[in-house]
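Need tokens for this chain, all 362 residues.
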Amino acid sequence: MFEDINDELNIFCKRLNSITSYIDLVENEKKLLKLFNQSEEIRNNKELSEVINLINENINSQVVYNAIIISLYSCYENYIDNILTKYLENLSNLNILYSNLPKAIQDNHTRLSGEFLSNLNRYKNYDLNPIDVVNNLSNCLNTNDKYILNKKILIMHPGNLGIEALNGLFSQVGIDNVLSKIKVNKYYKQYYKQENDIEGDEALNRIISSLNFTLAFQCLQDLVNRRNVIAHSWNEDERLNMEIIKEKYIIFFIMIGKAIHSILVTELYSILYKNDKLVKFEVVYKVIDNRIVCLNNGNIKIKKGDYIFIKRGNDKYSVSKILNMEINKEKVEKCEDRNTDIGIEVDDNINIRNQFFMYVNM
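Here are the structure tokens for all 362 residues:
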């Protein structure tokens, strides 16, 4: 389920890996130049010398550096826009009444659609048809069960997606305090623990909880600032080292991508849960090593890669992906038989006090 949201994360990671590969190419070209300069035979070859000189002139140029910074920021902003669009598309297709969507989405949808319709010249570059906007809003308010959200309007943002703008954009689609949610997300914790060599979850949680947003998302705001400097003045006095971009910034944005994906999928499942669209596993036998739940599937068909919604307590939810499944101690890819005892390994910590649910598309 939500394969299109998964696809956006995969595309984002592939693009970041492409930037990493480009940085590696630039660094390897520098190594080649050193080898070429040590070869008298190459230096005496006019054609080769011209090529080497051209590479030498461009390899440390502002163009190469600017291309990397702009590409990294564009990759990030494009991902946010695309994954939020897919989130809203999925939200419209959950067979949930419009009036049962989070109130913040309903309020912002009406307000922002109204702002668009009353200021058409202001939004003339957004490729939106006013008639479509009116019809979509009317269907939402009147038909209630079959509707299309004005997605482009809900994800409008006037400037770069720095810390405050990112928080505000997610609030527009009904997800408040997304930065706080990222900080407590498992991907942020894994990232911060590895980057800062912290031992023990208790110490990790204590340190993360004490971080303000400026410190917690320093790489994000710094990239936005550098992108703005380049866009308005071309040159940047203090360039980032290529290795730092690759080993620090790109690693950070991979984490951000995974955390936001996790938050959006969890939000969709929590909306399904609140609207009684999930089916509970009624028979849970035990949990092994905080990662394997042994249960009976009842009438629920399950396959590897599916998501399980976990209710951890009052208003505490998470979504975990099925990594492996076993029936009678044999690994299986799926189970379509009823009333089967299955061992399911998930990608997050669980315990026997948790309740487990799945979405069954009727």
